[in-house]
Amino acid sequence: MIDKEIIKMWRSGLNKYKLVEIYRSRYNHRIRIIRSEMPNRHAGRYISSYEALAVVEKAILKYLENQRK
């Protein structure tokens, strides 16, 4: 999920905590797929809700700062 998708969903009315759950589940699902292959079984790391919150808040703040200019 890229910043543009986060902003689009946020502007459509979702609050940041719902975005965190969506972001975390999508990210962890991609990691699960990568780890399903034997050579990559130790690759990547799952993220917590707290780490996902940092990513979502950073994207929203960056968007708001750009809007202000």
Explain this structure.
- By secondary structure, the protein is mainly α.
- Helix content is 71%, strand content 0%.
- It has three helices and no strands.
- The protein has helices spanning 3-11, 16-35, 49-68.
- It is elongated and about 50 Å long.
- The two termini are 25 Å apart.
- The mean pLDDT is 94.
Structural class estimated from helices and strands: mainly alpha
Figure out the total of helices. Answer: 3
Q: Tell me the span between the first and last alpha carbons.
A: 25 Å
**Proportion of residues in extended strands:** under 5%
What's the alpha carbon Rg, rounded to whole Å?
A: 14 Å
Largest sheet: none
* Oligomeric nature of the chains: single chain
Write down how many β-strands occur, each being a DSSP E stretch of 2 or more residues: 0
How much is the average pLDDT? 94
Runs in which pLDDT lies below 50 for 5 or more consecutive residues are none
Give the helices and strands as they follow along the chain. HHH
- Which of globular, elongated, flat, extended, rod-shaped describes the shape? elongated
As a percent range, the share of helical residues equals over 70%
How would you describe this structure in keywords?
69 residues, mainly alpha, elongated
Summarize the structure.
The protein has 3 helices and no strands. By secondary structure, it is mainly alpha-helical.
Topology:
Layout: H1 3-11, H2 16-35, H3 49-68
Helix pairs in contact: 1-3, 2-3
